[in-house]
Backbone:
């Protein structure tokens, strides 16, 4: 296990009424972080969600996911099937901003997608 000086765990959830891409984790300043780890849990058994992790080198956050503003997807789409979870861990060397979007397959009015983000410096 790496010897990190600090670790911050943040959690949240998405319960929404649409099926278009929206921000799941708003842009986070990661200029002083070494690593980010994400866990996504889809509690809606009948629907799959597509999650995308984004990074940006600029000193300001801009609009999450806007490729015209320099946001670049980190890795492939993450499909979180109904009643399952997914983990993703990235090194943040060189990144200033990181954020996550979700594209729900269907409306999440009762069931939801929950997330956890561990920031390590």
Residues:
């Amino acid at each position: 296990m790496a010897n990190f000086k600090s670790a911050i765990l943040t959690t949240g959830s998405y319960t929404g009424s649409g099926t278009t891409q929206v921000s799941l984790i708003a842009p986070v300043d990661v200029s002083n972080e070494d690593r980010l780890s994400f866990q996504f849990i889809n509690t809606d058994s009948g629907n799959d969600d597509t999650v995308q992790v984004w990074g940006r080198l600029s000193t300001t956050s801009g609009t999450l996911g806007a490729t015209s503003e320099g946001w670049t997807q980190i890795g492939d789409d993450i499909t979180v099937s109904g009643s399952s979870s997914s983990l993703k861990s990235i090194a943040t060397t060189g990144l200033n901003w990181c954020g996550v979007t979700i594209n729900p397959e269907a409306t999440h009015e009762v069931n939801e997608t929950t997330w956890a983000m561990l920031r390590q410096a």
Notes: Strands lie at 7-14, 22-29, 35-42, 49-56, 72-73, 78-80, 84-91, 97-104, 113-120. The two ends are 13 Å apart (CA to CA). The first strand starts at residue 7 and ends at 14. The CA atoms of residues 13 and 114 lie 4 Å apart.
